[in-house]
Amino acid sequence: MKKPLGVIVSTGGQIPNNLAIRLHKANVNILGTSPLSIDSAEDRHKFSGMLDTYSIDQPRWRELTNIDDIIKFVNSVGFPVLVRPSYVLSGAAMNVVSNIKNFNIF
């Protein structure tokens, strides 16, 4: 029986990202980018904290789950705003909202 050197967490969007941490916690050797690095880049709170640590400017953002909080945030930052799920690669399910009428995307 051959014992592999490790596994490659690759294509497939969120499935490999979600599996990477579980595999890492199960002591499976991940070849390539560390699951912890993937998670740090994908988790908005962790990524924002890292930017703050290095004094790198970033747009104001919030994790919001209801339209009232979204409207309050938009009133404080103005349009356009970027609306997206909190843990995604690429621009999947992302929308640019240019005015209050465009909030019917929800």
Task: Give a quick rundown of the structure.
This protein has 106 residues and is mostly helical.
Account of the 3D structure:
- Strand 1 (7-8), helix 1 and strand 2 form a beta-alpha-beta unit.
- The chain has 4 helices and 4 strands.
- The protein is elongated and about 60 Å long.
- Helix 2 packs across helix 3 (44-53).
- The protein is mainly α and 106 residues long.
- The mean pLDDT is 84.
Topology (SSEs and partners):
Layout: E1 7-8, H1 14-25, E2 30-31, H2 35-42, H3 44-53, H4 67-77, E3 81-83, E4 95-97
Parallel strand pairs: 1-2
Antiparallel strand pairs: 3-4
Helix pairs in contact: 1-2, 2-3
What is the overall shape?
A: elongated
Strand content: 5-15%
Helix content: 25-40%
Rg value: 18 Å
Mean residue pLDDT: 84
Strand order of the largest sheet: 1-2
Give a short account of the largest sheet.
2 strands, parallel
What is the SS-derived class?
A: mainly alpha
